[in-house]
Amino acid sequence: MASTSGLERGKWLLVVLLAGQFMANIDTAIVNTAGPSIKSSLGASDGQVDLVVSGYIVAHAVLLVTGARLGGTYGYQRVFLWGLAGFTVTSLMCGLAQGPEQLIVARLLQGSAGALMVPQVLSGIQLHFQGPARRRALGLFAVSLSGGAITGQVLGGLLIHADLLGSGWRSIFLINLPIGAVLLLAGLRVLPRETPKERRPLDGRGVGLLTIALLLSIGPLVLGRELGWPAWIWVCVLCAAAAAIWFVRTEKRLATSGGHPLVNLRMAAFPPLRWALAAHGLTSASYLALLFVLAHYLQEGLDRSPAYSGMVMVPWVAAFGVGGLLAGRVPERLVRYVPAGSCSLLAVSYIAVALTVWSGPGDGPLLLAALALGGLGLGLSSNALIGHMTEAVDSRWATDLSGVITTNGQLAGAAGVAAFGSLYASWAPAGDRAGAVDAFAGTAALFAVLALLGACAALSATRALARLGPFAPAGDPLVRDPDSTRAQS
């Protein structure tokens, strides 16, 4: 039976970790409402505004696996605090940027700092919580994601509208300074100071190849439409594919020789995890793209204010938190049906959004109801899929798994913002309300297709886990007790 002091320590440890996730999630959502204001204030182009949003996500995605591995090497507590300090400093840099180029660089650095901090949250949950306690912690993790998104959407619009001390959009970044300072002091006091028993060397070549592959694949998606898809864009895409192939071969060779690759490809290729990652990526791509496209649709297409644009997504993100809590309370006999069912619910919501926009005023109560349904579906699916993945992989691979999950979601989100942001911009003529309505409705219909594909992948994931059981390959260098493992077919 856990002691009272142990329960108290676990509670505050979770509070600090989730507060860090909360702050990082604010900065993923808050910039969506600020995009048009940044564009007019700094004289930024559409592509530069896209990079302010997706550049943060790309830098985050590129370094998440590295951040997770550093947590396994130096202790998740220490790396969490490093990332938190860096995130606070780079938020100041964003708030002081004098041009779009400076802001893009500051956002890249901010995303990199977040990549150190965020993977440690899931690592801490997986290492310190088991069984029902872990499911409850993951439910609260979903609430932190939802709360950060709500705060980002609402606070972004309100701060820009308030124009505190003439700061305009800059206040959305400067607000992180007091939050980061308080959280850093709390983390120093609450997080346990533990040293990992085994320090694995960082796979520098893997880091370099993965970084090159991701940057050369996402960058062209962001800039291609605005530049007219020149030949060098496609050269970058081919180079990204080559770097990805080289990365996979390097990781396999390192694992075969007994080393410690950046990504455990055997784990990532394990069918229950592979299908769950596919479902998680598809739903994440649709959600982050929706945040970006909806803000431009409301502000530029319908001429609504940033505050209004931020408030519209409140039903979605509030329902997301509710869905996360409900997922932790599903009866055991029904747990296996939640991932596919919730992805299907998300698809239904996107169809409802498309029909509502096509047939109505485009921004009324029916749209809010459709968005709330989508938030519920995404909250259920996100929590259920992450829970599925932590059950499919033993806690000894906690740092590897947390890096893979968070990288997968962020990379899919960056690709979604780049691809669907470009698609919406090409479909929505400037100053044409009817064109904006059609463009947004068509984009929402495509989101429904992604969610349905996610439902199919989620169903495959649950069936594979029932057939194969948890990942525990014999002979893996991370297995401490070979007698306690079994080979997977």
TrEMBL record:
PROSITE patterns: MFS
Keyword Signal among record annotations: no
Membrane-spanning ranges: 12-31, 51-72, 79-98, 104-125, 137-160, 172-192, 204-223, 229-248, 275-295, 307-327, 334-358, 364-386, 407-427, 439-461
Domain Major facilitator superfamily (MFS) profile: residue ranges: 13-466
Pfam families: MFS_1
CDD domains on file: MFS_MMR_MDR_like (cd17321)
Signal peptide: none
Bilayer topology annotation: Multi-pass membrane protein
Annotated compartments: Cell membrane
Keywords: Antibiotic resistance, Membrane, Transmembrane, Transmembrane helix
Protein name: MFS transporter
